[in-house]
């Protein structure tokens, strides 16, 4: 007879927690808990006398705890027995047990607040549920499996009954093609239904749909409205977008003070992107305010805080500060290190600055690395140009024309010259639209 004394350890007891389902008003939790309780009863009944002790232990535990690692062991024991029956005699009850295990996984994913359970030994199906609903970082589950279809089919009826969380999840399924064909219009409709019931995540997604024209026509005004509703409920992504809307006059009147307030809120919470934008606010405000010097130092401080978290834009601006002595002492060596870090993360402006640095090294500082520096200048200039940096596109045209760090190629020189002119023209048009 199997020994299940391990059920007396330190993880919340599955069965007893499931039996508390009635006290939960949240339908997601109560429904999944009830299903899990039924699943355990089904498993106990199927395993018969061999789990008599298990059933007794579950009902008589004094501390009502089991260990996460031993819960996995229990899953393996049940699965092994059920799989053997399925393969040998095509036992319908054994298939029922495997389905019941899925129900337990759903409960673990949806109904449980604890996040300490180890899932490294779970099957892909169990990992999928835990990863999907509890956001535990495990290996990539983008590869479609039968469980994604199972998930979609389980979500659909609850969404149709008006459950806002399931409506949000169903919208995600349609948006990403999980268990069904991708359908942006259906995703939009389900996000809208969930958002109208007050779901902050759905409100943010609905705003993105309006902002980018996914499943509906673009509408900056409606995007702003839904960003605002989601932001006011504490959704950090929406708060960042709302700050940007105020800062750029996107879908609403330009309001730099409100943008500043929202960026400040997020920056204090450790959001690196908001920290960078807050630094930008201080920088621009410093040029207009009577407290210019104080604002310059605050801008430098927030660039530094954001850069420490690896924000590429902040790294670039911090490099500019050190290069030009903005709110700090000039330090060309530090500036170069920061340009390199930002460039390696894909910042086009930093890539261009690196190209300029290596061009100067190759042109004016005659040493054994001249040819190598020409090649480095060409390499970084090309990376920046390919990202649409107009200055880099112009310089790349000159490199091809002169054969600097590459072979002479007049056709490519003309091609990049044209791209540079087109990019500059687009920037000018965009600025004129923004001014209006």
Count the DSSP helices: 21
What distance separates the N and C termini?
Answer: 80 Å
Radius of gyration: 29 Å
Q: How would you sum up the major sheet? A: none
Report helical residue fraction: over 70%
Residue-averaged pLDDT? 75
Strand runs, count: 0
Counting helices, strands and paired strands, the structural category is: mainly alpha
Task: Write up what this structure looks like.
With 436 residues, the chain is mainly alpha-helical. Among the domains are: 143 residues, no CATH class; 91 residues, Serine Threonine Protein Phosphatase 5, Tetratricopeptide repeat (Alpha Horseshoe). It contains 21 helices and no strands. Helix 5 runs parallel beside helix 6. The chain is 72% helix and 0% strand.
Structural key phrases:
single chain; about 425 residues; mainly alpha; Serine Threonine Protein Phosphatase 5, Tetratricopeptide repeat; globular; disordered N terminus
How is this fold's topology laid out?
Elements: H1 14-18, H2 27-47, H3 52-60, H4 68-89, H5 92-110, H6 124-134, H7 146-160, H8 164-176, H9 184-196, H10 200-212, H11 220-232, H12 236-248, H13 256-268, H14 272-288, H15 292-308, H16 312-324, H17 332-344, H18 348-364, H19 370-386, H20 390-402, H21 410-435
């Amino acid at each position: 007879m199997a020994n299940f004394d391990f059920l007396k350890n330190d993880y919340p007891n599955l069965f007893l927690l499931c039996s508390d389902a009635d006290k939960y008003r949240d339908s997601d939790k109560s429904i999944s808990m009830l299903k899990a309780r039924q699943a355990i009863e089904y498993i106990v009944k199927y395993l018969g006398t061999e789990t008599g002790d298990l059933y007794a232990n579950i009902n008589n535990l004094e501390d009502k705890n089991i260990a996460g690692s031993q819960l996995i062991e229990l899953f393996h024991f049940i699965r092994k027995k059920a799989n053997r029956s399925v393969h040998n005699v095509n036992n319908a009850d054994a298939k029922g047990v495997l389905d019941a295990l899925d129900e337990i996984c759903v409960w673990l994913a949806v109904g449980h607040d604890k996040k300490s359970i180890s899932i490294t030994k779970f099957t892909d199906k169990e990992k999928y549920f835990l990863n999907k609903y509890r956001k535990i970082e495990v290996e990539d589950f983008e590869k479609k499996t039968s469980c994604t279809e199972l998930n979609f089919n389980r979500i659909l009826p609850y969404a149709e009954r008006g459950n806002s969380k399931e409506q949000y999840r169903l919208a995600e399924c349609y948006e990403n093609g999980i268990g069904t064909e991708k359908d942006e219009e259906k995703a939009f409709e389900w996000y809208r239904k969930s958002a109208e019931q007050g779901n902050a995540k759905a409100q943010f997604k609905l705003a993105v749909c309006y902002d980018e024209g996914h499943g509906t026509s673009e509408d900056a005004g409606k995007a702003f409205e839904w960003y605002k509703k989601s932001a006011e409920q504490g959704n950090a992504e929406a708060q960042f977008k709302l700050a940007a809307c105020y800062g750029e006059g996107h879908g609403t009147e330009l309001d730099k003070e409100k943008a500043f307030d929202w960026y400040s809120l997020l920056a204090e919470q450790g959001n690196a992107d908001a920290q960078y934008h807050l630094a930008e606010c201080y920088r621009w405000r410093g040029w207009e305010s009577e407290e210019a010097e104080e604002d310059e130092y605050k801008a430098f401080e927030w660039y530094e805080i954001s850069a420490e978290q690896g924000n590429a834009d902040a790294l670039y601006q911090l490099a500019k500060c050190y290069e030009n002595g903005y709110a700090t002492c000039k330090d060309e060596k530090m500036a170069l290190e920061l340009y390199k870090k930002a460039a390696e993360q894909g910042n086009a402006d930093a890539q261009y600055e690196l190209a300029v640095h290596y061009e100067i090294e190759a042109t004016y500082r005659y040493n054994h690395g001249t040819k190598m520096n020409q090649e480095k200048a060409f390499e970084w200039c090309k990376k920046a140009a390919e990202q649409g940096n107009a200055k880099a596109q112009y310089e790349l045209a000159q490199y091809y024309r002169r054969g600097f760090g590459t072979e002479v190629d007049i056709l490519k020189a003309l091609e990049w010259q044209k791209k540079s002119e087109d990019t500059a023209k687009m920037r000018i048009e965009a600025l004129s639209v923004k001014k209006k």
